[in-house]
Design brief:
This protein has about 150 residues and is an alpha/beta fold. It is built from six helices and five strands. Helices cover about 50% and strands about 20% of the residues. Strands 3-2-1-4-5 form a five-stranded parallel beta sheet, with helices on both faces. Helix 1 links the parallel strand 1 and strand 2. Helix 4 runs parallel beside helix 6. The longest helix is centred in the middle third of the chain and has 26 residues.
Length: about 150
């Protein structure tokens, strides 16, 4: 049985299905579950991108960006906390991770850093047709991961 589970979620219905599988495995092992969501810079709201602001001087730009990044990360972390509440309600400890970058790269990198025995994720995420044309996060994770990947549909 898997001892070190990494659940990657993008909050999609398929990711939540994977979460139910994570719960089943975690209840058997009585081990904490690492949960990651990755913010893809291409998906960031426009106000977080490099848009010139006439009211912010050059010296203030960096401070404003840090505050916005921190506030956005806190919102994502809050959403991740809510999405994993069912695990804690069932007595499963969670360690939450928010990463920024290409989702497949960040998921594999974190699994390696944590020494995960398995990565669990949903079969389909948020990107629909783009995933079909460019290759999905699931495809990239299964090709690059150094541990088993459980894909739940």
């Amino acid at each position: 049985m898997f001892q070190k589970i990494l659940w990657a979620t993008d909050f999609s219905p398929h990711a939540q299905d994977a979460g139910r599988m994570v719960l089943d495995c975690a209840e058997r092992t009585q081990r904490p579950v690492d949960v990651v969501t990755v913010v893809d810079p291409g998906d960031l709201p426009a106000f977080l991108l490099d848009v010139p602001d006439p009211f912010v001087t050059g010296g203030e730009v960096e401070a404003v960006e840090r505050r916005l990044d921190h506030r956005y990360e806190e919102r994502v972390r809050g959403h991740l906390h809510e999405a994993t509440q069912f695990l804690r309600d069932a007595g499963v400890s969670t360690v939450l991770h928010v990463r920024v970058g290409t989702p497949s790269e960040q998921i594999v990198r974190l699994a390696d850093q944590l020494g995960s025995d398995v990565i669990m994720l949903g079969a389909h995420g948020k990107h629909g047709l783009a995933g079909v044309l460019l290759g999905s996060t699931v495809d990239h994770v299964t090709e690059r991961a150094h541990c088993p990947v459980l894909v739940v549909r």
